[in-house]
Amino acid sequence: MKDHSQTPSLEDQLVPLRARIDKIDAELIRLLNERAGVAHEVGEVKKVFDAPVFRPEREQQVIARLQGLSRGPLHDTHIAAIWGEIMSASRALEKPTVVAFLGPVGTYSEQAALDYFGNSATGLPCPSIDEVFRSVEAGASEFGVVPVENSTEGAVSRTLDLLLSTSLSITGEIALPIHHNLLALGTDLAAIRAVCAHPQAIAQCQRWLSTHLPHAERRAVSSNAEGARLAAADPTLAAIAGDRAAAHYGLQTPAAQIQDDVHNRTRFHVIGGTPPAPSGADQTSLILSVKNEAGAVYRMLEPFATYGVSMSRFESRPARSGSWAYYFYIDIEGHREEPRVAEAIAALDRIAAFVRVAGSYPRAR
Length: 365
Fold this sequence. Notes:
Layout: H1 10-49, H2 56-69, H3 76-94, E1 98-102, H4 108-117, E2 122-126, H5 129-138, E3 143-150, E4 154-155, H6 157-165, E5 170-177, E6 181-184, E7 194-197, H7 199-204, H8 206-212, E8 217-220, H9 224-231, E9 237-241, H10 243-249, E10 252-255, E11 265-271, E12 282-289, H11 296-306, E13 311-318, E14 326-333, H12 339-351, E15 354-362
Parallel strand pairs: 1-2, 1-3, 7-8, 7-9
Antiparallel strand pairs: 3-4, 3-11, 5-11, 6-9, 6-10, 12-14, 12-15, 13-14
């Protein structure tokens, strides 16, 4: 049996460590306020030149630089999260950032918006993706966040259609891991008569629902947060949503992580704001169409190979003209101002019937 009589107590060992942490925290708060003061000066200079407050390419470069300087134990994801919030707070001192998202409060779209702009941004929940676009176009919000693609269910067609018709540019992207939870007022699965969720969320949890709630109705609603709102008022209803919805609507989690694909992710576009300058890790989104003739799609893709531009996404949507024509949504690596990308786009202009550069922006971290 070990003799602990000579060993300092837990409290004796923690006291000096806590004192060191308190001293470090005091220095950190001094430096953070000093940094915020300099950020405010930057804001004053920007006002003179009418320059944008939010510069995603600059913020990405700052975070990448700090990640390169770090020697641990903080991971790169920790550094990105910490400095993202620091810069969000600094931006709020210059000018409130209003961001529209598909509501109500508690959706994954809201989570994506907060992940990208930080918790100091002001969220504006909208009832539909159309309303997110309208909000930014009308100036009610500076930015919008819209879902564009899910790794399980594919493209969000309404977003693609609106990107074709809007004058707004894509200025950023977020790749959000989707962790679906079953939410309800209680924890008894036998009490659940219906599950309310967005159709894509229901589709992403089909296997789990068939195994654990085979007799429950699957009821499609406008958003997962709307499902959570309904479940909060009826003990026979359950929702499929994330932690934010559970906290906001006061729901319990009878089952967590019920998505069929553990790697399920949704990609969101940021729309609105000033088009970002090159960051060194960029992506460009294009919308193209070609004449309905043999070899047209092959010729459309040829400039990418000629100029060494890599494609990361290729999607088609009917043009709704009744002539079996299609629009092609393509993501390529690089910024439109890079010579090889600019040359490829110039070649496309000569080949394609329609070319729209929807935006060049930093790739999701």
